[in-house]
Amino acid sequence: MTEPALAYPLPEEVSPTLWYVAKTHPNGEQKASFHLQRQGFDVYLPRYLRRISHARRISWQPRPLFPTYLFVAMTGADQRWRAINSTIGVAHLICDERGPVPVPSGIVAALQNEEDDRGLVMTGRKVPFEKGAEVQIMSGAFADHIGRFEGATDDERVVILLNLMGRQVKAKVNLDVISARA
Domains in the chain and their CATH numbers? Predict the structure, then answer.
């Protein structure tokens, strides 16, 4: 007696999905991402908020974390990688003599874990002070003054409340020049 044929074949060994890096044309990250997704590729374009100063106005705009680069996911068995090189907006996939070079495992996941609820990677240094903490300015025009930490303005500067001439004055200083008061 013969065994019945299976209605569908058994799955072959599933290749893991790996991330690769594609170099894009200048300012072509969005265009490349759009066209790669249309072809069925998973794409990850990490972005962060960048401070833009123009005509005495400051705004924060999302920008690519790695300008002219984006990540493309493929399975190890996927041989469609040559199609990436001819995609609109893509200059080329990063390769060596053997073919596309995968990104070390965990890099893309680590970037995705750093995203906030808007999908933006948080890049700023972590400010080691709580609001209201007593700090000392170590150098500059206000060296040796004691103040209260008010908050951070961006990646490099913080606001300190100083007691000058009998009243509290807000001063913006570099994060590197303050320390916790001992």
Answer: 17-113 (3.30.70.940), 134-180 (2.30.30.30)
pTM: 0.62
The answer to whether 63 touches 48, Cβ cutoff 8 Å, is: yes
Question: Which residue is associated with the tokens 């907006």?
Answer: 89
Give the range with max mean pLDDT: 23-32, 70-79, 101-110, 125-134: 23-32
Q: Are 84 and 35 in contact (CB under 8 A)?
A: no
Please give the biggest Cα pair distance in the chain.
102
